[in-house]
Amino acid sequence: MNAFSASGLEVKFQKFDRDLTLDDEFVIEGYASLFGAKDQGGDVVEKGAYAKSLGDGRKVKMLWQHDPNEPIGIWDEIREDERGLYVKGRLLETVARAREAAALTRAGAIDGLSIGYRTVKSHKNERGLRCLSEVELWEVSLVTFPMLPEARLDGREGKSDTLQDLAQVFENARQTLAARKAR
Fold it and tell me: Positive or negative, the Cα torsion across 30, 36, 134, 148?
């Protein structure tokens, strides 16, 4: 079907006669951010940093490699838990790049998650790292190389079965106590 936009450019679209369905291979989940973990830019996200942004009703976009011209799906669930920012969503099978992303994630070639945000409140900690206490979350992308190497698709909500994960829990608690004492 053809139509003309306000600019006079021709726009082509096709109305689907059936409901779209998604296969299980198009569902992705994992942690896009971990509390207390230093990323490669020297930033640390504090627990609660996303709360205000997630509560404002804005839809967080799912992008490919942070490219605003490449939305590839929708996030059905985004929430903070004790570990970090948990996301679960669907790649849209009618989007060519999403089908490619599904194939790449299934093969293990892509497994990184990364956040796009604006810093609202931050402070330096005793180690000189920038601690993000409030951010405005815009998007979560599937990426090849996440800024936080631990931000990955893993398909297991609440996964915490390694010594590194346990050490992270203790570090988060230590930082929370230190921040409270400093106030």
Answer: negative
Number of Cβ within a 10 Å radius of residue 36: 20
pTM of the model: 0.71
| Dihedral of the alpha carbons of 23, 24, 26, 31, in degrees to the nearest 10 | 160
Domain span at 41: 21-156+174-182
**What is the number of structural domains in the chain?**
1
Catalytic center residues: 66, 114, 139
The H-or-E segment that residue 78 falls in is strand 67-80
Q: How far is residue 34's CA from residue 38's CA, in Å, rounded to a whole number?
A: 9
Decide if 169 is inside a domain: no
Average pLDDT over all residues of the chain: 81
Indicate whether 2 pLDDT > 50.
Answer: no
* Residue corresponding to tokens 């990955």: 152
Read off the pLDDT of residues 4-61 as tens digits, 9 standing for 90 and up: 445 555 444 433 334 333 445 689 999 999 999 999 999 999 999 999 999 988 899 9
Helix or strand (DSSP H, E) at 100: helix 96-107
Query: Contact at 8 Å (CB) between 16 and 9?
Result: no
